[in-house]
Automatic annotation (TrEMBL):
InterPro entries: G_CP_dom, GTP-bd, GTP-bd_ribosome_bgen_YqeH, Mito_lipid_metab_GTPase, NOA1/YqeH-like_C, P-loop_NTPase
Alphabetized GO MF terms: GTP binding
Superkingdom of the organism of origin: Bacteria
Species this chain originates from: Pediococcus argentinicus
Domain called CP-type G: residue spans: 64-227
Name of the molecule in the record: YqeH protein
Length: 368
């Protein structure tokens, strides 16, 4: 049929023909959706119901249109990142396509970080990372969209910086952009769950305009898919064991020289030329296993997907192979497996850190 129906999740035009393109929904689901008034594309439906990430192709033209739109506008850009996955939150070329517009960075999922980490230190770290990627944010705010923490403060800051202009919210998928927008609009306009329950005239693939006040809009842009995220290398069932829902409780391991820690079968940490404590920060239920370095390869081959989970045996075959990254630490350093967690090394040591191909491993001066 010749339809022009729009997904209430992402604003794509719904279509039933091309599985890999935006807006795809199976015909049967579409009919049900029309009946119930809940029109989602398959991707948004899965995101809502199973928190499953399904990549979708934006055509280059769609993408260029989106980017040039931002360049040509006079607006405040609110760039939402996942504090737990800075590299996985990067939008390639963002600093170019924002043009002269001011960018404010929102570091979301602040609730995952222990209270003992100074928020000022985290902001400083975000600023440094931003600078290293060519961005000069006018400000950095930390929020927990899920717990509605610091969202009101964020709104105050947005009011201050936008000076009556529109606000473009940008971010890759899974950083909590929808949750944050819903919270902000609820606070600002009293409208609940704006992104999933309302449809706005003129929504297209590239933007959803939400009235912000009488004269301006908040514009939700599509979540850009960043393939180098844990969320993309893991199946939905496994993701819930690694994505922290609550504040991480640090664990201390007294390591001997030449010992290895396995974080499920997802990451590996080899500790050499040193003896002493390391502190791990991962989802509280993630299974951490210690072995001798000399046994580690063999141990992994025999136990990945069984003793070492996630991922489970069934999903292990789809996991990209682990790739090693070597570092020498001199002082207290965090070795960060992006999107998974980090290990604080308390002094000098030689470290080889392994993560699935595509997932970044970085070091930073310890946050604590
Ligand atoms: P979007 O793809 O950027 O729009 O992200 P969503 O709003 O759909 O959120 C992605 C996932 O992150 C969901 O599982 C949310 O529950 C979770 N999430 C969102 N905000 C927060 C937060 O502040 N803290 C934590 N721990 N999780 C969050």
């Amino acid at each position: 049929t010749d339809m022009d129906l729009i997904c209430i999740g992402c604003g794509s035009h719904l279509q039933t023909t091309d599985k890999d393109k935006a807006g795809y929904t199976p015909k049967s689901a579409l009919d049900k959706g029309i009946e119930s008034g809940e029109l989602y594309c398959q991707r948004c439906f899965r995101l809502r119901h199973y928190n499953e990430i399904v990549p979708v192709e934006l055509t280059d033209d769609d993408f260029r249109r989106l980017l040039s739109q931002i360049q040509d506008t006079d607006a405040l850009i609110v760039y939402v990142i996942d504090l737990f996955d800075f590299n996985g939150s990067l939008i390639p070329g963002l600093h170019r396509f924002v043009g002269d517009n001011p960018v404010m960075i929102v570091g979301n999922k602040e609730d995952i970080f222990p209270k003992s980490i100074k928020r000022s230190k985290m902001k400083e770290w975000v600023k440094q990372q931003a600078h290293a990627n060519g961005l000069r944010p006018i400000d950095v705010q930390l929020t927990s969209a899920k717990n509605n923490h610091q969202v009101e403060e964020l709104l105050h800051q947005i009011e201050r910086y936008r000076k009556g202009r529109d606000v473009y919210v940008v971010g890759v998928t899974n950083v909590g952009k929808s949750t944050l927008i819903n919270q902000m609009i609820k606070m600002q306009n009293g409208v609940d769950n704006v992104i999933t329950t309302s449809r706005f005239p003129g929504t297209t693939l590239d933007r959803i305009e939400i009235p912000f006040d009488e004269h301006s809009n908040l514009i939700d842009t599509p979540g850009i898919i960043h393939n180098d995220q844990m969320a993309h290398v893991l199946a939905a069932q496994d993701l819930k064991y690694i994505a922290p829902q609550k504040t991480i409780k640090p664990k201390v391991f007294q390591l001997n020289d030449n010992q290895t820690l396995f974080m499920g079968a997802l990451a590996r940490f080899d500790y050499t030329n040193s003896v002493g404590p390391v502190t791990t920060y991962f989802e509280n239920n993630l299974n951490i296993h210690r072995t001798k370095l000399s046994n580690a390869d063999d141990f992994y081959d025999r136990h990945a997907g069984e003793l070492l989970v996630p991922p489970t045996a069934e999903n292990f075959k789809d996991l990209p192979e682990l790739v090693s990254h070597s570092f020498r630490t001199e002082r207290k350093t965090d070795v960060v497996f992006e999107g998974l967690g980090w290990i604080t090394v308390h002094g000098g040591a030689s470290i080889t850190a392994w993560a699935p191909k595509g997932i970044s491993v970085i070091t930073r001066p310890a946050l604590i």
